[in-house]
Specification:
By secondary structure, this protein is of the alpha+beta class. It has helices at 86-94, 106-117, 124-130, and strands at residues 5-13, 19-26, 36-42, 53-55, 60-63, 72-75, 81-84, 98-103. Strands 1, 2, 3, 4, 5, 6, 7 and 8 form an eight-stranded antiparallel β-sheet that branches. The longest helix has 12 residues, at 106-117.
Length: 132
């Protein structure tokens, strides 16, 4: 997978312990033993934000472009960011728990990454991962 890949995880364990099906976006290009940094998406309207673009103060980027077929809110608050090693993703793919949906256009994924960089919730570690 590369930065901008959108995949469906059919059995994602959320931070609160619940599990469910969720579309995730890869935010970085994996390097060496570094993990893939991924964020959740939702098609449920958030914060009454309709206009496409960055809302870093709310940890959201709104997009209405392929590969999503509806307006989508890409979330990057502390509870919406996940890390996966390449080994973990390979196992998930082998077990048919993840399926690649498509890839976000370069200008949009760069906008999403830049929006996340402006978030108050981002860690120095994640900033380093996003540089790759």
């Amino acid at each position: 997978m590369i930065k901008g890949t959108v995949f469906c995880h059919i059995n994602l364990t959320f931070k609160n312990g619940d599990t469910g099906k969720k579309l995730l976006v890869v935010l970085n290009n994996q390097s060496g033993s570094d993990p893939f940094l991924c964020c959740k998406t939702t098609s449920q309207k958030r914060y009454d934000l309709d206009r496409e673009g960055c809302y870093s103060e709310k940890n959201v980027f709104v997009i209405n472009q392929a590969p999503f077929n509806v307006k989508t809110w890409i979330q990057f608050d502390l509870y919406s960011i996940f890390e996966f090693t390449s080994v973990e993703l390979l196992k998930l793919k082998f077990n048919e728990e993840v399926k690649v949906i498509g890839c976000i256009a370069t200008n949009y994924i760069n906008g999403i990454v830049n929006c996340y960089r402006k978030s108050d919730d981002i860690s120095a570690y994640h900033i380093d991962l996003l540089k790759k």
